[in-house]
Amino acid sequence: MTNSTIMYTGMLHSHKLFVILFLLIYLIKTLLLLLNKNESLVNFTKKTRILEMIVSTLFLVTGIFLASNSGTNGTWLWVKIAAVAISIPIAVIAFKGQKKSLALVSLFLIIYAYGISETKSPTFKKEKVEMLASGDRSAVGQDVYAKMCQSCHGINGKAGMSGAKDLSISNLSNDEKIAIIKHGKNAMIPYEKSLNEEQIAAVADYIETLKIK
Ligand code: HEC
Does the beta carbon of 211 lie inside 6 Å of ligand 1? Predict the structure, then answer.
């Protein structure tokens, strides 16, 4: 593993953990507000104040790191950042003024942002990419690589965005490569559903040509 891969993967896992902790604290506070448990809400807020500050800071810092080192800065990322950014002042106003509807709006925005992250799409739908589905093997491989892989691995396989491995020095067997392409690994998503067998075999061949001989 290269250092950047370890760093990115570590950040990715930490970010998810901080987001989940943040969501949990926020969910409990919203529930207490909705159930009119004002005293418990005040107590809970006091007890978790420091924790919440630490968690939200780390959640933002890891998020900024991931966004700036990521190879897939699609629209979804901006929609997600906007949803989180809008939800924060709404949450502050909601809890200051004990406004239940605003607390719900803010909670909804945060959950929406989480959904975007998981699906990499503002509408939670996979976008369709037009690619050669079959035919000349090297043309198919090159086409698939340019449309699905290059954003992280780069034209020469060395870009290393999102902690991607340097393909020009990779020494995996053909089967191992195909397994990673099919099932994904860490920041790399699985392609089993979006590519057919022929495309997977072709792109595995294509990345062989990126190797430094
Ligand atoms: C979102 C960014 C991203 C995209 C897009 C992406 N990869 Fe990756 N790829 C990665 C990351 C990250 C790793 C390292 C995974 C790990 O070991 O933690 C990786 C690792 C690999 C490896 C293993 C290399 C080794 O030596 O271990 C292969 C092979 C590979 N990718 C091929 C592809 C192909 C082919 C595509 C397109 C179909 C693709 N990748 C698209 C991020 C990406």
Answer: no
HSE-CB of 164 using CA atoms within 13 angstroms? 25
Phi-psi region of 157 (alpha: psi -120 to 50; beta: other; left: phi over 0): left
**Does residue 168's CB lie within 6 angstroms of at least one atom of ligand 1?**
no
The domain 137-208 having CATH identifier 1.10.760.10: the answer here is yes
The model's pLDDT over 72-111, given as tens digits with 9 standing for 90+, comes to 657 888 899 999 999 999 999 999 999 999 999 999 999 9
Domain ranges of the chain: 3-119, 137-208
Q: How sure is the predictor about 31, in pLDDT bands with cuts at 50, 70 and 90?
A: very high
- Residue labelled with tokens 């897939």: 72
Give me ligand 1 centre to Cα 181, in Å: 7
**CA 158: distance to chain centroid?**
21
